[in-house]
Amino acid sequence: MKHTCAIFDLDGVLVDTAKYHYLAWKELADRLGFSFTLQDNERLKGVSRMASLDILLEVGQMTEHFTQAEKESLAEEKNNRYVEFISKLDESELLEGSLALLETLKAKGVKIALGSASKNAKMILENVGITAFFDVIVDGNAVSKAKPDPEVFTLGADQLNVPYEQCVVFEDSQAGLEAAKAVGMLALGVGQEQDLPQADVVFPTLKSFPVGVYF
Ligand code: BG6
Ligand code: MG
């Protein structure tokens, strides 16, 4: 079936920022005295900042060590470090095939939405120069419920007046794929098949995505 709307996750799908999230969390874990591996990091993809902190503290078996106020300051510490990384982003950090895909979809008249958990999404879009492609931007500031709740995708589709079954979601996270499937959107995984068992189809990068099959 042909679809009329593409909804993109940002971190790890369009832009190579997942590595900076990992580095910033890892620095925090190192400072707190425990190790945080790339495999642990898979659980954080697509997950909101505070929920990510909870998972990180669980990995370090430190869940009970901090008050809510202390946790907020730990999350802020991580975010400050992350923002240092992303303030230097430029178009070289766009992931393979993302710019070409956005251009092709735009030329076909497909509606394009962002559906990202990040509160830093707008800064990232600006720094890599792709803001203008989006008909609607839904980010971590706009939602009240985080992925795997589908709100971040339904808000965009609703604003564009597109039925959910006409939406294709591009995601690198388990939480995001679950969110898309919950409302009948096509859930396309970007990454490695073994990390994304919930996906309807997985593509290693956007470069290998066959646009004509889906749009
Ligand atoms: C998602 C990332 O896009 O945004 C998560 O995959 C991140 O790793 C989440 O925690 C929230 O991002 P931010 O920039 O608001 O801390
Ligand atoms: Mg992502």
Automatic annotation (TrEMBL):
Q: Which InterPro entries match?
A: B-phosphoglucomutase_hydrolase, Beta-PGM, Beta-PGM-like, HAD-like_sf, HAD-SF_hydro_IA, HAD_sf, PGP-like_dom2
Q: What is its EC number?
A: 5.4.2.6
The superkingdom of the source organism is Bacteria
Alphabetically sorted, this entry's keywords are:
Carbohydrate metabolism, Isomerase, Magnesium, Metal-binding, Phosphoprotein
| Cofactor(s) of this protein | Mg(2+)
Broadest EC class? isomerase
Task: Give the family, as the similarity comment puts it.
Answer: Belongs to the HAD-like hydrolase superfamily. CbbY/CbbZ/Gph/YieH family.
User: Which PANTHER family does this chain map to?
Assistant: 6-PHOSPHOGLUCONATE PHOSPHATASE, HEXITOL PHOSPHATASE B
- The name this protein carries in UniProt is Beta-phosphoglucomutase
Organism expressing this protein natively: Lederbergia ruris
